[in-house]
Specification:
This protein is an alpha+beta fold. It folds into 3 domains: about 130 residues, Thrombin, subunit H; about 120 residues, Thrombin, subunit H (Beta Barrel); about 90 residues, Pdz3 Domain, CATH 2.30.42. It has 13 helices and 21 strands.
Length: about 375
């Protein structure tokens, strides 16, 4: 399991810059010539000729419009979110956020990274033709880290094809594709396909670890050589162990199968049933000392119980825990939101049994209140 210190917490991820990324970044024009994956995109899977069209004697503008990479980028949008200062995530994520979005159906449904739109009071999406329109939140799910939005104005859209992330294999090639103007397409390799546990009470099964890293990963599409969506960009990591002796920086993508598995619930309820679980408001990390509290969320359950940074979590409900995944799984399996959870902590060589009144994180976040406040301000 990856140690929590190897991946940037999503509350800091938008500000993270990997040293030397500029040396790794390659432009789309260079990739089109040098990289076999891009060549396959351009010449086989996506070319007009493959669709039975002829590009002979077409004017330059028409040729540009037929650029296969440009055609795929029609399925990508730039997402901008404005956040009210009453939002609980305002201090951490900021009041203005930006990321990518992926159009996944003919009605303009867009999937993006959840932290981009969390508690958003207003949203806009910009399409590949530079058209910018207001958007609304359809669903937001903390448990998987994704959000669904849709443009409020009817715009002709080109949905991306959904692939099957279960078929992915380590060392396969893929392509990170952001929205037009948000960064370059980047060929990558699959480094790992395994569970990822984040210290912010997050576990992602079958997480897709890719390298080299992209700085335009947030909500970006991970595509197969058939231009099918394999994953949605979530995180940047500085520690992908592609070999027992080799660790490299890269990105973590949420598998598309994670999305499709709960898409029905998201469309009906705005969240998955999996997201209805206890939350403590702790940022934890695994160390030689054990599970150490790195930070406590302001106004969160753990903060109100008196838990402090530096405390070591030894047991949950009298059951000893030795790792983050074990701790989270026990809490989510044995308790419901609102129930009191007893944590045995070690502080200054003294043990203490601390009761924490858990909450449902999505109810704790000011998702609806934030939008209502924004509407009130606009109508004054």
């Amino acid at each position: 399991m990856l140690k929590s210190h190897t991946v940037r917490h999503p509350l800091r991820v938008l500000r993270f810059v990997v040293t030397g990324l500029a040396l790794l970044t390659t432009s789309v024009s260079q990739l089109a010539v040098a990289d076999p994956l891009i060549q396959q995109f351009l010449l086989q899977e996506l070319s007009p000729a493959a669709a039975g069209e002829s590009s002979t004697n077409k004017p330059p503008m028409a040729a540009a419009a037929q650029d296969p990479l440009h055609e795929v980028q029609k399925s990508m949008v730039a997402v901008k979110a404005s956040i009210s200062n009453i939002a609980r995530t305002a201090a951490s994520f900021g009041l203005e956020r930006q990321g990518n979005g992926i159009i996944i159906d003919a009605n303009g449904l867009i999937v993006t990274a959840g932290y981009v739109i969390a508690e958003a009071s207003s949203l806009t999406v910009t399409f590949s033709d530079a058209t910018t329109v207001a958007a609304e939140i359809i669903a937001y799910d903390e448990s998987i880290g994704l959000g669904l939005i849709r443009a409020q104005t009817s715009i002709p859209t080109t949905p991306i094809k959904l692939g099957d992330s279960a078929k992915l294999k380590v060392n396969e090639r893929a392509l990170i594709l952001p929205a037009l103007g948000e960064g370059d397409a980047k060929p990558v390799q699959i480094g790992k396909l395994k569970q990822f546990t984040g210290g912010w009470e997050y576990v992602l099964d079958n997480a897709i670890h890719t390298y080299p890293p992209s700085t335009s990963f947030s909500g970006a599409a991970l595509l197969s050589d058939k231009a099918e969506l394999l994953g949605v960009g979530a995180l940047v990591t500085i520690d992908i162990d592609i070999d027992p002796k080799v660790r490299v920086p890269g990105n973590i993508f949420i598998p598309v199968n994670t999305l499709t598995g709960v898409l029905g619930e998201l469309m009906v309820a705005g969240r998955s049933s999996e997201s209805i679980r206890p939350w403590l408001g702790l940022e934890l990390k695994e160390t030689k000392r054990g599970i150490v509290v790195g930070a406590v969320t302001n106004d969160g359950p753990a903060s109100q119980s008196g838990i402090k940074a530096g405390d070591v979590v030894v047991a949950v409900d009298q059951a000893k825990v030795s790792g983050l995944t074990q701790l989270y799984r026990k809490i989510w399996t044995d308790f419901e939101p609102g129930e009191q959870i007893h944590l045995l902590i070690l502080r200054d060589s003294q043990y203490a049994n601390v009761p924490v009144a858990s909450v449902d994180q999505q109810e704790w976040l000011k998702l609806e209140q934030n939008r209502d406040t924004a509407i009130t301000e606009l109508t004054k």
